[in-house]
Amino acid sequence: MDWGFILERTLSASIGVEVMVYALAAVGLNVHFGYTGLMNFGQAGFMAAGAYGIGVTVYWLQWSFWVGIGFVFVYGAVLALLLGIPTLRLRADYLSLVTIAAAESIRLIARSRVMRPITGGVEGVNKFAEKFYELSPFELGEFYSVGPFKYLGRDVWVLVVGWTTLLLVVMMVRQLMRSPWGRTLRAIREDEDAARALGKNAYFFKMQALMLGGLIGAVAGCIQSIQKSSVQADTFNPVITFTIWTILIIGGPGRVWSPIAGSTIYWTLIVFVENTLRQLPADTRETLEATIQLSDLNISMLRYILVGSGLLLLARFRPQGIFGSREEMALDRR
Amino acid sequence: MTAGSEARADGATTQAADPPIIVANGVVKTFGGLRAVDVERLEIRRNKITALIGPNGAGKTTFFNLLTGFDKVDSGVITLDGEDITGTPPHRLAAKGMVRTFQLTKALAKLSTIENMKLGALDQQGEKFWSALIPGSWTKQEREIEARADAVLKRFNLTHMRDEYAGTMSGGQRKLLEMARALMTDPRVVMLDEPMAGVNPALAQSLLELIKLLPGEGRTVIFVEHNMDVVQEISDWVVVMAEGRIIAQGTKAEIKNNKAVVDAYLGAHHGEDLSKMELS
After folding, report:
1. Nearest to A181 among B102, B132, B181 (CB)
2. Contact, A190 vs B80, CB < 8 A?
3. Nearest to residue A52, comparing CAs of A41, A60, A43, A40?
4. ipTM score here?
5. Residue of A nearest to B101 (CA)
6. Torsion of CA B127, B131, B137, B143, to 10 degrees
7. Cβ–Cβ < 8 Å for B159, B150
8. What is the largest CA-CA distance in chain B?
9. B274 in a structural domain
10. Is residue A184 a part of any domain in this protein?
11. Residues B77 and B157 grouped into a single domain
12. Residues of A with CB below 8 A from B133's CB?
Protein backbone atom coordinates (compact mmCIF):
# COMPACT_ATOMS: atom_id res chain seq x y z
CA MET A 1 0.00 0.00 0.00
CA ASP A 2 1.17 3.46 -0.89
CA TRP A 3 0.50 5.39 2.30
CA GLY A 4 2.23 8.48 0.93
CA PHE A 5 -0.26 8.62 -1.92
CA ILE A 6 -3.23 8.08 0.42
CA LEU A 7 -1.96 10.81 2.72
CA GLU A 8 -1.42 13.24 -0.14
CA ARG A 9 -4.90 12.66 -1.53
CA THR A 10 -6.52 12.88 1.90
CA LEU A 11 -4.71 16.02 3.02
CA SER A 12 -5.27 17.73 -0.32
CA ALA A 13 -8.96 16.93 -0.01
CA SER A 14 -9.11 18.27 3.53
CA ILE A 15 -8.91 21.85 2.27
CA GLY A 16 -10.07 21.05 -1.26
CA VAL A 17 -12.82 22.43 -3.45
CA GLU A 18 -15.56 20.16 -2.09
CA VAL A 19 -14.79 21.13 1.50
CA MET A 20 -14.93 24.81 0.63
CA VAL A 21 -18.11 24.67 -1.49
CA TYR A 22 -20.04 22.49 0.93
CA ALA A 23 -18.88 24.48 3.94
CA LEU A 24 -20.17 27.64 2.29
CA ALA A 25 -23.52 26.04 1.49
CA ALA A 26 -23.65 24.76 5.08
CA VAL A 27 -23.00 28.27 6.43
CA GLY A 28 -26.16 29.28 4.59
CA LEU A 29 -28.08 26.35 6.04
CA ASN A 30 -26.69 27.23 9.46
CA VAL A 31 -28.25 30.69 9.16
CA HIS A 32 -31.54 28.98 8.27
CA PHE A 33 -31.67 26.04 10.61
CA GLY A 34 -28.93 26.60 13.16
CA TYR A 35 -29.83 30.15 14.13
CA THR A 36 -33.42 30.68 12.98
CA GLY A 37 -34.87 27.17 13.07
CA LEU A 38 -36.00 27.26 9.44
CA MET A 39 -36.18 23.74 8.00
CA ASN A 40 -34.81 24.30 4.52
CA PHE A 41 -34.58 21.01 2.64
CA GLY A 42 -33.80 22.70 -0.64
CA GLN A 43 -30.35 24.22 -0.24
CA ALA A 44 -29.41 22.49 -3.54
CA GLY A 45 -32.09 24.68 -5.15
CA PHE A 46 -30.33 27.83 -3.95
CA MET A 47 -27.02 26.46 -5.25
CA ALA A 48 -28.72 25.85 -8.61
CA ALA A 49 -30.04 29.40 -8.57
CA GLY A 50 -26.50 30.69 -8.15
CA ALA A 51 -25.02 28.38 -10.79
CA TYR A 52 -27.65 29.19 -13.41
CA GLY A 53 -27.51 32.83 -12.39
CA ILE A 54 -23.99 33.08 -13.71
CA GLY A 55 -24.10 30.35 -16.37
CA VAL A 56 -27.20 31.47 -18.23
CA THR A 57 -26.34 35.15 -18.05
CA VAL A 58 -22.86 34.78 -19.45
CA TYR A 59 -23.36 31.92 -21.92
CA TRP A 60 -26.79 32.65 -23.39
CA LEU A 61 -27.17 36.38 -22.91
CA GLN A 62 -23.47 36.97 -23.61
CA TRP A 63 -23.41 39.54 -20.84
CA SER A 64 -20.26 40.20 -18.87
CA PHE A 65 -19.02 37.84 -16.17
CA TRP A 66 -19.54 40.53 -13.54
CA VAL A 67 -23.18 41.03 -14.48
CA GLY A 68 -23.43 37.24 -14.14
CA ILE A 69 -22.14 37.48 -10.58
CA GLY A 70 -24.85 40.06 -9.93
CA PHE A 71 -27.47 37.63 -11.19
CA VAL A 72 -26.25 34.99 -8.70
CA PHE A 73 -27.64 37.28 -6.01
CA VAL A 74 -30.75 38.24 -7.99
CA TYR A 75 -31.74 34.60 -8.58
CA GLY A 76 -30.99 33.62 -4.98
CA ALA A 77 -33.05 36.51 -3.60
CA VAL A 78 -35.97 35.85 -5.93
CA LEU A 79 -36.01 32.18 -4.95
CA ALA A 80 -35.96 33.08 -1.24
CA LEU A 81 -38.90 35.44 -1.73
CA LEU A 82 -40.86 32.88 -3.76
CA LEU A 83 -40.36 30.24 -1.08
CA GLY A 84 -40.75 32.51 1.91
CA ILE A 85 -43.75 34.69 1.11
CA PRO A 86 -46.32 31.88 1.11
CA THR A 87 -44.77 29.67 3.81
CA LEU A 88 -43.12 31.74 6.54
CA ARG A 89 -46.43 32.74 8.10
CA LEU A 90 -47.34 29.07 8.43
CA ARG A 91 -46.03 26.34 10.70
CA ALA A 92 -42.38 25.37 10.27
CA ASP A 93 -43.18 22.12 8.42
CA TYR A 94 -44.57 23.93 5.39
CA LEU A 95 -41.26 25.55 4.56
CA SER A 96 -39.52 22.16 4.52
CA LEU A 97 -42.17 20.69 2.19
CA VAL A 98 -42.03 23.65 -0.15
CA THR A 99 -38.23 23.90 -0.25
CA ILE A 100 -37.64 20.24 -1.10
CA ALA A 101 -40.33 20.37 -3.78
CA ALA A 102 -38.99 23.64 -5.18
CA ALA A 103 -35.41 22.37 -5.37
CA GLU A 104 -36.52 19.28 -7.29
CA SER A 105 -38.76 21.38 -9.54
CA ILE A 106 -35.85 23.63 -10.40
CA ARG A 107 -33.70 20.64 -11.31
CA LEU A 108 -36.39 18.91 -13.39
CA ILE A 109 -37.44 22.07 -15.20
CA ALA A 110 -33.83 23.05 -15.90
CA ARG A 111 -33.05 19.66 -17.44
CA SER A 112 -36.28 19.46 -19.48
CA ARG A 113 -36.14 19.67 -23.27
CA VAL A 114 -38.42 22.72 -23.33
CA MET A 115 -35.86 24.71 -21.37
CA ARG A 116 -32.98 23.67 -23.63
CA PRO A 117 -32.59 27.08 -25.33
CA ILE A 118 -32.07 28.66 -21.91
CA THR A 119 -30.58 26.14 -19.52
CA GLY A 120 -29.05 23.81 -22.07
CA GLY A 121 -31.27 20.96 -20.88
CA VAL A 122 -29.42 17.85 -19.77
CA GLU A 123 -26.12 19.02 -21.25
CA GLY A 124 -26.29 22.25 -19.29
CA VAL A 125 -24.24 25.36 -19.80
CA ASN A 126 -20.52 25.86 -20.20
CA LYS A 127 -17.99 28.45 -21.40
CA PHE A 128 -18.95 31.11 -18.89
CA ALA A 129 -16.01 31.09 -16.50
CA GLU A 130 -13.17 32.18 -18.83
CA LYS A 131 -13.04 35.65 -17.32
CA PHE A 132 -12.48 34.14 -13.88
CA TYR A 133 -9.53 32.04 -15.02
CA GLU A 134 -8.05 34.92 -17.06
CA LEU A 135 -7.54 36.70 -13.75
CA SER A 136 -5.62 33.77 -12.31
CA PRO A 137 -2.07 34.53 -11.16
CA PHE A 138 -1.37 30.78 -11.29
CA GLU A 139 -0.54 28.73 -14.39
CA LEU A 140 -3.84 26.97 -15.02
CA GLY A 141 -2.43 23.69 -16.33
CA GLU A 142 0.48 23.27 -13.94
CA PHE A 143 0.62 21.39 -10.67
CA TYR A 144 1.50 23.31 -7.53
CA SER A 145 2.49 21.54 -4.36
CA VAL A 146 3.32 22.63 -0.83
CA GLY A 147 4.29 19.74 1.43
CA PRO A 148 1.67 17.03 1.01
CA PHE A 149 -0.80 19.43 -0.62
CA LYS A 150 -0.93 19.20 -4.39
CA TYR A 151 -3.34 20.92 -6.77
CA LEU A 152 -3.69 21.93 -10.39
CA GLY A 153 -3.09 25.68 -10.93
CA ARG A 154 -6.71 26.42 -11.88
CA ASP A 155 -7.89 24.75 -8.67
CA VAL A 156 -5.38 26.74 -6.61
CA TRP A 157 -7.01 29.90 -7.98
CA VAL A 158 -10.51 28.59 -7.20
CA LEU A 159 -9.36 27.66 -3.70
CA VAL A 160 -7.81 31.04 -3.00
CA VAL A 161 -10.94 32.91 -4.07
CA GLY A 162 -13.28 30.34 -2.53
CA TRP A 163 -11.66 30.16 0.90
CA THR A 164 -11.37 33.94 1.05
CA THR A 165 -15.07 34.22 0.32
CA LEU A 166 -15.88 31.50 2.84
CA LEU A 167 -13.89 33.13 5.64
CA LEU A 168 -15.39 36.55 4.92
CA VAL A 169 -18.89 35.08 4.97
CA VAL A 170 -18.22 33.23 8.24
CA MET A 171 -16.91 36.45 9.82
CA MET A 172 -19.99 38.29 8.61
CA VAL A 173 -22.34 35.65 10.02
CA ARG A 174 -20.44 35.69 13.30
CA GLN A 175 -20.82 39.46 13.56
CA LEU A 176 -24.52 39.25 12.73
CA MET A 177 -25.22 36.54 15.28
CA ARG A 178 -23.52 38.51 18.04
CA SER A 179 -25.76 41.49 17.34
CA PRO A 180 -29.30 42.10 18.58
CA TRP A 181 -30.43 40.96 15.11
CA GLY A 182 -28.95 37.52 15.75
CA ARG A 183 -30.41 37.46 19.25
CA THR A 184 -33.85 38.02 17.78
CA LEU A 185 -33.32 35.15 15.33
CA ARG A 186 -32.41 32.82 18.20
CA ALA A 187 -35.49 33.96 20.08
CA ILE A 188 -37.64 33.19 17.05
CA ARG A 189 -35.99 29.78 16.68
CA GLU A 190 -37.08 28.94 20.17
CA ASP A 191 -40.51 30.55 20.40
CA GLU A 192 -41.89 32.74 17.71
CA ASP A 193 -44.89 33.91 19.75
CA ALA A 194 -42.68 35.11 22.58
CA ALA A 195 -40.72 37.22 20.10
CA ARG A 196 -43.90 38.58 18.52
CA ALA A 197 -45.32 39.53 21.91
CA LEU A 198 -42.14 41.55 22.50
CA GLY A 199 -42.59 43.58 19.35
CA LYS A 200 -40.50 41.58 16.90
CA ASN A 201 -41.92 41.08 13.42
CA ALA A 202 -41.06 37.38 13.26
CA TYR A 203 -42.14 37.04 9.62
CA PHE A 204 -39.81 39.79 8.52
CA PHE A 205 -36.83 38.42 10.47
CA LYS A 206 -37.42 34.91 9.10
CA MET A 207 -37.56 36.31 5.59
CA GLN A 208 -34.25 38.10 6.11
CA ALA A 209 -32.67 34.91 7.42
CA LEU A 210 -34.06 32.82 4.56
CA MET A 211 -32.68 35.33 2.09
CA LEU A 212 -29.25 35.61 3.70
CA GLY A 213 -28.79 31.82 3.94
CA GLY A 214 -30.15 31.36 0.43
CA LEU A 215 -27.75 33.93 -1.02
CA ILE A 216 -24.83 32.21 0.69
CA GLY A 217 -26.03 28.94 -0.86
CA ALA A 218 -26.24 30.64 -4.26
CA VAL A 219 -22.65 31.86 -3.94
CA ALA A 220 -21.60 28.28 -3.11
CA GLY A 221 -23.37 27.04 -6.25
CA CYS A 222 -21.72 29.76 -8.30
CA ILE A 223 -18.22 28.86 -7.09
CA GLN A 224 -18.88 25.17 -7.69
CA SER A 225 -20.05 25.81 -11.26
CA ILE A 226 -17.01 28.00 -11.95
CA GLN A 227 -14.72 25.23 -10.71
CA LYS A 228 -16.45 22.67 -12.93
CA SER A 229 -16.74 25.24 -15.74
CA SER A 230 -20.18 23.86 -16.36
CA VAL A 231 -23.68 23.93 -14.93
CA GLN A 232 -25.61 20.70 -15.07
CA ALA A 233 -29.07 20.29 -13.61
CA ASP A 234 -28.41 16.87 -12.13
CA THR A 235 -25.59 18.22 -9.98
CA PHE A 236 -28.26 19.80 -7.80
CA ASN A 237 -30.08 16.68 -6.64
CA PRO A 238 -31.51 16.15 -3.14
CA VAL A 239 -28.45 14.13 -2.08
CA ILE A 240 -26.50 17.42 -2.16
CA THR A 241 -28.99 19.00 0.24
CA PHE A 242 -28.76 16.07 2.63
CA THR A 243 -24.97 16.05 2.47
CA ILE A 244 -25.07 19.70 3.53
CA TRP A 245 -27.39 18.78 6.40
CA THR A 246 -25.02 15.98 7.42
CA ILE A 247 -22.11 18.40 7.45
CA LEU A 248 -24.00 20.91 9.57
CA ILE A 249 -25.04 18.24 12.06
CA ILE A 250 -21.49 16.86 12.34
CA GLY A 251 -20.24 20.34 13.18
CA GLY A 252 -23.17 21.29 15.41
CA PRO A 253 -25.96 23.64 14.27
CA GLY A 254 -25.93 27.22 15.50
CA ARG A 255 -22.16 27.45 15.89
CA VAL A 256 -20.03 29.71 13.77
CA TRP A 257 -17.23 27.35 12.76
CA SER A 258 -19.22 24.13 12.57
CA PRO A 259 -19.89 24.24 8.80
CA ILE A 260 -16.16 24.34 8.06
CA ALA A 261 -15.32 21.66 10.64
CA GLY A 262 -18.19 19.46 9.51
CA SER A 263 -17.32 19.77 5.84
CA THR A 264 -13.62 19.07 6.47
CA ILE A 265 -14.38 15.98 8.53
CA TYR A 266 -16.96 14.68 6.08
CA TRP A 267 -14.88 15.01 2.92
CA THR A 268 -11.60 13.98 4.54
CA LEU A 269 -13.22 10.76 5.73
CA ILE A 270 -14.83 10.07 2.37
CA VAL A 271 -11.57 10.57 0.47
CA PHE A 272 -9.49 8.67 3.03
CA VAL A 273 -11.77 5.63 3.03
CA GLU A 274 -12.03 5.52 -0.73
CA ASN A 275 -8.31 5.84 -1.35
CA THR A 276 -7.45 3.32 1.34
CA LEU A 277 -9.87 0.77 -0.08
CA ARG A 278 -8.49 1.29 -3.58
CA GLN A 279 -4.91 0.92 -2.37
CA LEU A 280 -5.43 -2.35 -0.52
CA PRO A 281 -2.93 -5.10 -1.46
CA ALA A 282 -4.07 -7.33 -4.30
CA ASP A 283 -4.66 -10.45 -2.18
CA THR A 284 -6.76 -8.55 0.40
CA ARG A 285 -8.87 -7.13 -2.38
CA GLU A 286 -9.42 -10.57 -3.88
CA THR A 287 -10.53 -11.89 -0.51
CA LEU A 288 -12.90 -8.95 -0.05
CA GLU A 289 -14.30 -9.40 -3.53
CA ALA A 290 -14.86 -13.11 -2.90
CA THR A 291 -16.48 -12.66 0.52
CA ILE A 292 -18.41 -9.38 0.46
CA GLN A 293 -18.24 -8.74 -3.31
CA LEU A 294 -16.31 -5.52 -2.90
CA SER A 295 -15.58 -4.59 -6.49
CA ASP A 296 -14.14 -1.35 -7.87
CA LEU A 297 -17.67 -0.20 -8.55
CA ASN A 298 -19.12 -0.48 -5.10
CA ILE A 299 -16.14 0.94 -3.21
CA SER A 300 -17.79 4.32 -3.61
CA MET A 301 -20.94 2.90 -2.01
CA LEU A 302 -19.02 1.34 0.86
CA ARG A 303 -17.43 4.66 1.80
CA TYR A 304 -20.90 6.14 2.29
CA ILE A 305 -21.90 3.14 4.41
CA LEU A 306 -18.83 3.57 6.60
CA VAL A 307 -19.29 7.33 6.93
CA GLY A 308 -22.96 6.71 7.71
CA SER A 309 -22.02 4.33 10.52
CA GLY A 310 -19.68 6.98 11.86
CA LEU A 311 -22.57 9.43 11.88
CA LEU A 312 -24.68 7.00 13.85
CA LEU A 313 -21.95 6.81 16.46
CA LEU A 314 -21.76 10.59 16.55
CA ALA A 315 -25.52 10.83 17.03
CA ARG A 316 -25.28 8.34 19.86
CA PHE A 317 -22.28 9.73 21.72
CA ARG A 318 -22.12 13.38 20.75
CA PRO A 319 -25.61 14.41 19.60
CA GLN A 320 -24.82 18.10 19.78
CA GLY A 321 -22.13 17.80 17.06
CA ILE A 322 -18.46 18.76 17.35
CA PHE A 323 -18.99 22.35 18.47
CA GLY A 324 -22.50 22.13 19.86
CA SER A 325 -23.13 22.70 23.53
CA ARG A 326 -24.30 19.73 25.55
CA GLU A 327 -25.74 22.12 28.12
CA GLU A 328 -27.99 23.76 25.52
CA MET A 329 -29.02 20.36 24.24
CA ALA A 330 -30.01 19.27 27.75
CA LEU A 331 -32.32 22.28 28.08
CA ASP A 332 -34.54 20.77 25.39
CA ARG A 333 -35.49 17.91 27.64
CA ARG A 334 -36.58 20.00 30.58
CA MET B 1 -63.04 53.00 44.17
CA THR B 2 -64.06 55.81 41.85
CA ALA B 3 -67.37 57.32 42.75
CA GLY B 4 -70.18 56.26 40.48
CA SER B 5 -68.65 53.01 39.31
CA GLU B 6 -71.43 50.54 39.46
CA ALA B 7 -71.51 46.89 38.57
CA ARG B 8 -74.22 45.87 36.22
CA ALA B 9 -74.89 42.22 35.60
CA ASP B 10 -75.42 42.77 31.85
CA GLY B 11 -71.82 43.89 31.50
CA ALA B 12 -72.77 47.35 30.23
CA THR B 13 -70.84 50.55 30.61
CA THR B 14 -69.30 51.48 33.89
CA GLN B 15 -68.31 55.03 34.62
CA ALA B 16 -64.86 56.07 35.64
CA ALA B 17 -63.17 59.43 36.04
CA ASP B 18 -60.54 58.82 33.31
CA PRO B 19 -61.53 57.69 29.84
CA PRO B 20 -60.95 53.92 29.60
CA ILE B 21 -57.66 52.77 28.06
CA ILE B 22 -59.11 49.78 26.25
CA VAL B 23 -62.64 49.47 24.90
CA ALA B 24 -63.99 46.29 23.32
CA ASN B 25 -67.27 46.69 21.46
CA GLY B 26 -69.33 43.79 20.13
CA VAL B 27 -66.33 41.46 19.99
CA VAL B 28 -67.31 38.03 18.66
CA LYS B 29 -65.12 35.00 17.96
CA THR B 30 -66.51 31.65 16.91
CA PHE B 31 -64.74 28.32 16.47
CA GLY B 32 -66.98 26.26 14.22
CA GLY B 33 -70.38 26.43 15.89
CA LEU B 34 -69.00 27.47 19.25
CA ARG B 35 -69.29 31.13 20.22
CA ALA B 36 -66.06 31.24 22.21
CA VAL B 37 -66.20 34.98 22.85
CA ASP B 38 -69.23 37.24 22.62
CA VAL B 39 -68.51 40.46 24.50
CA GLU B 40 -70.99 43.29 24.00
CA ARG B 41 -68.92 45.96 25.65
CA LEU B 42 -66.00 46.07 28.00
CA GLU B 43 -64.02 49.04 29.20
CA ILE B 44 -60.68 48.61 30.90
CA ARG B 45 -59.83 51.39 33.29
CA ARG B 46 -56.57 53.22 33.07
CA ASN B 47 -53.85 52.53 35.64
CA LYS B 48 -55.95 50.00 37.50
CA ILE B 49 -55.62 46.27 37.96
CA THR B 50 -58.43 44.39 36.27
CA ALA B 51 -58.92 40.68 36.87
CA LEU B 52 -60.58 38.51 34.27
CA ILE B 53 -62.06 35.44 35.91
CA GLY B 54 -64.44 32.67 35.02
CA PRO B 55 -64.73 28.92 34.96
CA ASN B 56 -62.71 26.75 32.56
CA GLY B 57 -63.78 27.24 28.97
CA ALA B 58 -65.28 30.66 29.68
CA GLY B 59 -63.27 32.19 26.81
CA LYS B 60 -60.87 34.19 28.97
CA THR B 61 -57.71 33.18 27.14
CA THR B 62 -59.38 33.49 23.73
CA PHE B 63 -60.51 37.00 24.66
CA PHE B 64 -56.95 37.72 25.78
CA ASN B 65 -55.66 36.51 22.42
CA LEU B 66 -58.13 38.78 20.62
CA LEU B 67 -57.06 41.81 22.63
CA THR B 68 -53.36 41.12 22.01
CA GLY B 69 -53.66 40.39 18.29
CA PHE B 70 -52.74 36.70 18.55
CA ASP B 71 -56.21 35.81 17.24
CA LYS B 72 -58.51 37.67 14.86
CA VAL B 73 -62.03 38.78 15.79
CA ASP B 74 -64.96 37.72 13.60
CA SER B 75 -66.63 41.04 14.27
CA GLY B 76 -66.36 43.93 16.69
CA VAL B 77 -63.96 46.74 17.42
CA ILE B 78 -61.18 47.05 19.97
CA THR B 79 -59.61 50.40 20.74
CA LEU B 80 -56.50 51.35 22.69
CA ASP B 81 -56.59 54.96 23.90
CA GLY B 82 -59.20 55.69 21.27
CA GLU B 83 -57.15 54.17 18.44
CA ASP B 84 -58.71 51.25 16.57
CA ILE B 85 -56.40 48.28 17.09
CA THR B 86 -58.71 45.54 15.77
CA GLY B 87 -56.64 43.04 13.81
CA THR B 88 -53.32 44.74 14.57
CA PRO B 89 -50.56 42.08 14.76
CA PRO B 90 -48.91 41.47 18.15
CA HIS B 91 -45.56 43.03 17.28
CA ARG B 92 -47.26 46.33 16.35
CA LEU B 93 -49.30 46.26 19.54
CA ALA B 94 -46.13 45.84 21.55
CA ALA B 95 -44.76 48.94 19.84
CA LYS B 96 -47.95 50.77 20.83
CA GLY B 97 -47.33 49.84 24.45
CA MET B 98 -49.39 46.70 24.92
CA VAL B 99 -47.49 43.62 26.05
CA ARG B 100 -48.58 40.18 27.21
CA THR B 101 -47.29 37.09 28.96
CA PHE B 102 -48.44 33.54 28.38
CA GLN B 103 -50.24 30.91 30.38
CA LEU B 104 -47.50 28.42 29.50
CA THR B 105 -44.44 30.49 30.28
CA LYS B 106 -42.34 31.43 27.30
CA ALA B 107 -38.98 32.10 28.90
CA LEU B 108 -36.49 31.43 26.10
CA ALA B 109 -34.55 28.52 27.58
CA LYS B 110 -31.47 28.72 25.35
CA LEU B 111 -30.96 32.42 25.86
CA SER B 112 -29.36 33.65 29.05
CA THR B 113 -31.50 35.61 31.49
CA ILE B 114 -29.92 38.90 30.49
CA GLU B 115 -30.38 38.08 26.80
CA ASN B 116 -34.05 37.36 27.45
CA MET B 117 -34.31 40.76 29.08
CA LYS B 118 -32.48 42.66 26.36
CA LEU B 119 -34.72 41.05 23.75
CA GLY B 120 -37.64 42.90 25.30
CA ALA B 121 -36.37 46.37 24.46
CA LEU B 122 -38.12 48.04 21.52
CA ASP B 123 -36.66 50.06 18.63
CA GLN B 124 -33.21 48.52 18.73
CA GLN B 125 -30.85 49.82 16.09
CA GLY B 126 -28.91 46.55 16.20
CA GLU B 127 -31.97 44.59 15.16
CA LYS B 128 -31.75 46.10 11.70
CA PHE B 129 -29.78 43.87 9.34
CA TRP B 130 -27.31 46.42 7.97
CA SER B 131 -26.75 48.13 11.31
CA ALA B 132 -26.12 44.73 12.89
CA LEU B 133 -23.06 44.41 10.63
CA ILE B 134 -21.58 47.62 12.05
CA PRO B 135 -21.16 47.19 15.83
CA GLY B 136 -20.43 50.88 16.31
CA SER B 137 -23.97 51.71 15.31
CA TRP B 138 -25.62 49.81 18.14
CA THR B 139 -23.20 49.11 21.00
CA LYS B 140 -24.02 52.35 22.83
CA GLN B 141 -27.75 51.63 22.78
CA GLU B 142 -27.04 48.03 23.77
CA ARG B 143 -25.19 49.22 26.89
CA GLU B 144 -28.12 51.43 27.85
CA ILE B 145 -30.53 48.55 27.37
CA GLU B 146 -28.30 46.29 29.44
CA ALA B 147 -28.21 48.80 32.29
CA ARG B 148 -31.99 49.06 32.22
CA ALA B 149 -32.30 45.26 32.11
CA ASP B 150 -30.00 44.91 35.12
CA ALA B 151 -32.12 47.38 37.07
CA VAL B 152 -35.31 45.46 36.33
CA LEU B 153 -33.62 42.14 37.16
CA LYS B 154 -32.59 43.54 40.49
CA ARG B 155 -36.13 44.61 41.25
CA PHE B 156 -37.36 41.11 40.35
CA ASN B 157 -34.65 39.54 42.48
CA LEU B 158 -33.15 37.64 39.55
CA THR B 159 -29.70 39.22 39.46
CA HIS B 160 -28.06 35.97 40.59
CA MET B 161 -29.46 34.25 37.47
CA ARG B 162 -28.24 36.99 35.13
CA ASP B 163 -25.83 34.92 33.03
CA GLU B 164 -27.48 31.52 33.39
CA TYR B 165 -29.57 29.96 30.66
CA ALA B 166 -33.21 30.77 31.34
CA GLY B 167 -33.82 27.05 30.88
CA THR B 168 -32.11 26.35 34.20
CA MET B 169 -34.69 28.41 36.11
CA SER B 170 -37.53 27.08 38.20
CA GLY B 171 -41.10 27.50 36.99
CA GLY B 172 -41.69 30.42 39.32
CA GLN B 173 -38.49 32.19 38.30
CA ARG B 174 -39.52 31.83 34.66
CA LYS B 175 -42.81 33.57 35.44
CA LEU B 176 -40.85 36.39 37.07
CA LEU B 177 -38.50 36.58 34.09
CA GLU B 178 -41.36 36.69 31.62
CA MET B 179 -42.95 39.58 33.47
CA ALA B 180 -39.64 41.40 33.86
CA ARG B 181 -38.95 40.94 30.15
CA ALA B 182 -42.40 42.29 29.30
CA LEU B 183 -41.61 45.43 31.32
CA MET B 184 -38.55 46.00 29.13
CA THR B 185 -40.96 47.13 26.39
CA ASP B 186 -42.02 49.96 28.75
CA PRO B 187 -45.70 49.12 28.26
CA ARG B 188 -48.84 51.14 28.99
CA VAL B 189 -50.86 47.95 29.26
CA VAL B 190 -49.52 44.74 30.78
CA MET B 191 -51.58 41.64 30.14
CA LEU B 192 -50.75 38.65 32.30
CA ASP B 193 -52.23 35.24 31.47
CA GLU B 194 -52.35 33.29 34.73
CA PRO B 195 -49.29 34.93 36.31
CA MET B 196 -49.51 32.77 39.44
CA ALA B 197 -49.93 29.34 37.87
CA GLY B 198 -47.27 26.98 39.19
CA VAL B 199 -45.59 29.58 41.39
CA ASN B 200 -44.80 28.57 44.94
CA PRO B 201 -46.45 30.63 47.72
CA ALA B 202 -43.29 32.46 48.80
CA LEU B 203 -42.49 33.59 45.27
CA ALA B 204 -46.15 34.31 44.56
CA GLN B 205 -46.20 36.92 47.29
CA SER B 206 -43.29 38.86 45.84
CA LEU B 207 -44.82 38.57 42.37
CA LEU B 208 -48.04 40.07 43.71
CA GLU B 209 -46.14 42.95 45.28
CA LEU B 210 -44.45 43.62 41.95
CA ILE B 211 -47.78 43.64 40.11
CA LYS B 212 -49.27 46.03 42.65
CA LEU B 213 -46.52 48.55 41.87
CA LEU B 214 -47.36 48.76 38.17
CA PRO B 215 -50.39 51.13 38.28
CA GLY B 216 -48.27 53.64 40.17
CA GLU B 217 -45.85 53.67 37.22
CA GLY B 218 -48.66 54.51 34.84
CA ARG B 219 -49.30 50.98 33.65
CA THR B 220 -52.68 49.31 33.32
CA VAL B 221 -52.77 45.64 34.31
CA ILE B 222 -55.20 43.03 33.02
CA PHE B 223 -54.78 39.50 34.25
CA VAL B 224 -56.48 36.13 33.95
CA GLU B 225 -56.42 34.12 37.15
CA HIS B 226 -58.06 31.12 38.77
CA ASN B 227 -56.81 31.71 42.27
CA MET B 228 -59.47 33.78 44.06
CA ASP B 229 -57.12 34.79 46.86
CA VAL B 230 -54.92 36.48 44.30
CA VAL B 231 -57.90 38.18 42.69
CA GLN B 232 -59.09 39.38 46.08
CA GLU B 233 -55.71 40.72 47.01
CA ILE B 234 -54.67 42.79 44.02
CA SER B 235 -57.57 43.62 41.71
CA ASP B 236 -59.33 46.98 41.59
CA TRP B 237 -61.99 45.66 39.26
CA VAL B 238 -63.17 42.14 38.47
CA VAL B 239 -64.71 41.00 35.20
CA VAL B 240 -66.42 37.62 35.19
CA MET B 241 -66.81 35.62 32.00
CA ALA B 242 -68.82 32.46 31.38
CA GLU B 243 -69.54 30.78 28.08
CA GLY B 244 -67.91 33.60 26.19
CA ARG B 245 -69.98 36.39 27.70
CA ILE B 246 -69.32 38.87 30.45
CA ILE B 247 -71.83 37.93 33.12
CA ALA B 248 -70.79 40.39 35.79
CA GLN B 249 -68.26 43.02 36.68
CA GLY B 250 -67.62 45.13 39.71
CA THR B 251 -65.39 45.57 42.70
CA LYS B 252 -64.20 42.39 44.37
CA ALA B 253 -66.72 42.83 47.19
CA GLU B 254 -69.59 43.13 44.75
CA ILE B 255 -68.48 40.11 42.76
CA LYS B 256 -68.09 37.93 45.81
CA ASN B 257 -71.81 38.11 46.55
CA ASN B 258 -73.07 38.12 42.98
CA LYS B 259 -75.47 35.20 42.42
CA ALA B 260 -74.76 34.91 38.69
CA VAL B 261 -71.06 34.48 39.44
CA VAL B 262 -71.59 31.86 42.07
CA ASP B 263 -73.93 30.01 39.72
CA ALA B 264 -71.44 30.12 36.88
CA TYR B 265 -68.73 28.62 39.02
CA LEU B 266 -70.67 26.12 41.02
CA GLY B 267 -73.75 25.46 38.86
CA ALA B 268 -77.21 26.96 39.42
CA HIS B 269 -78.26 24.12 41.70
CA HIS B 270 -75.36 24.13 44.11
CA GLY B 271 -76.30 23.60 47.69
CA GLU B 272 -79.52 21.86 46.82
CA ASP B 273 -80.20 18.35 47.95
CA LEU B 274 -79.51 16.04 45.02
CA SER B 275 -82.32 13.69 46.01
CA LYS B 276 -84.87 16.48 45.63
CA MET B 277 -83.70 17.50 42.14
CA GLU B 278 -85.73 16.56 39.12
CA LEU B 279 -84.06 14.08 36.86
CA SER B 280 -84.35 15.15 33.28
Report:
1. B132
2. no
3. A60
4. 0.86
5. A197
6. 20
7. yes
8. 79
9. no
10. yes
11. no
12. 172, 175-176, 179
